[in-house]
Amino acid sequence: MTDAYAGLLRRMAAMRGCDRMLSGVRPVSMTEHLDAVRATLAPDSLPDFYGEGGPVEALELRVAELLGTEAAVFFPTGTMAQQVAIRYGAELTGRTTVGLHPLSHLVLHERDAYAVLGGLRAVRTTTAPRNPTAGEVAELAEPIGTLLLELPLRDAGFVLPTWDELVAVVAAARAAGARVHLDGARLWESTPRLGHPAAAVAGLFDSTYVSFYKSLGGISGAALAGEAGLIRYAREWRHRYGGTLFQQWPAAAAGLVGLDRELPRLPGYVAHATAVAAALAGLPGARVYPTPPHTHQFRLWLPYPADRLNAANLALAEEERAWFVGGWQDTEVPGLAMAEVTVAAPALDLDATQVADLGGRFLRRLAAT
């Protein structure tokens, strides 16, 4: 066991023992995951086989209905789903260029798979910490086959455009002859600020990827949704990439559980995030962005080194059964660290006064270290 994994197990055990949690959710054991899945299955339910039938097919139909698309296909990972989507755009348009933000998931977290595996080339859409504008897309120096938009843009602070800005940038891409793909890993919680349901958002795009674990609490897995031709193509390339597993019913069934249980709760998390962010912004030395949050996730900075913040948070959890915020990372400014705050079900039990009190307890423990 590596030191990193041992540290992860310790943090998970501490979180499971907490009575109060501000950021994140209580980690779920394998047994608890299986119990939740088992409760949704009929006694004679049969699994999927190589992507056909069972919970996989049920999940694909459910996603296509939610997003208003002709079809959807299950993928083991979002990385694989997105590689297939932009490959399809390149083949249809004859352009191997993809409009990408330098903070997008494809650039920062997929080890250049779009270039190494797909033979595609990135065209930077903007350097601003937000999605590109219609004007920026219209003025790109070279044509692109696909414009990829990540909603929200996680590594810029979970930021979203307005609905009108989104409509305009999609129109600008189409006017330039490009297809438009949505990295919608967090689409589910983006709809309150956009003011339109998921189907309306997906309807702007040629293809949409959604995740089943980032906000829905699933085990793993993703779906790619769009017109029938794309989905036929995606099934072929999923097989070529090694993504057509013998059976994937546990992940698919957990995805269905998430759509039933967590999806209806997300608007409440987004609404509560505004109160949580305001309370955290009142802590000494704290900074919150964006204000108010665009989804149920946002960034928090405190003027301390990350290792001290993480140690104080773990001690608070283990000794006082309260979890503040974990996952602190040092920034380019010495002595200033940043963490991502996720307002989920446990945080609904904390009003603004309780959030401020928990933050004060955390800072007092930090000062004593």
UniProtKB/TrEMBL annotation:
<keyword id="KW-0663">Pyridoxal phosphate</keyword>
<protein>
    <submittedName>
        <fullName>Threonine aldolase family protein</fullName>
    </submittedName>
</protein>
<dbReference type="Pfam" id="PF01212">
    <property type="entry name" value="Beta_elim_lyase"/>
</dbReference>
<dbReference type="InterPro" id="IPR015424">
    <property type="entry name" value="PyrdxlP-dep_Trfase"/>
</dbReference>
<feature type="domain" description="Aromatic amino acid beta-eliminating lyase/threonine aldolase">
    <location>
        <begin position="48"/>
        <end position="291"/>
    </location>
</feature>
<comment type="similarity">
    <text>Belongs to the threonine aldolase family.</text>
</comment>
<dbReference type="InterPro" id="IPR001597">
    <property type="entry name" value="ArAA_b-elim_lyase/Thr_aldolase"/>
</dbReference>
<dbReference type="InterPro" id="IPR015421">
    <property type="entry name" value="PyrdxlP-dep_Trfase_major"/>
</dbReference>
<dbReference type="InterPro" id="IPR015422">
    <property type="entry name" value="PyrdxlP-dep_Trfase_small"/>
</dbReference>
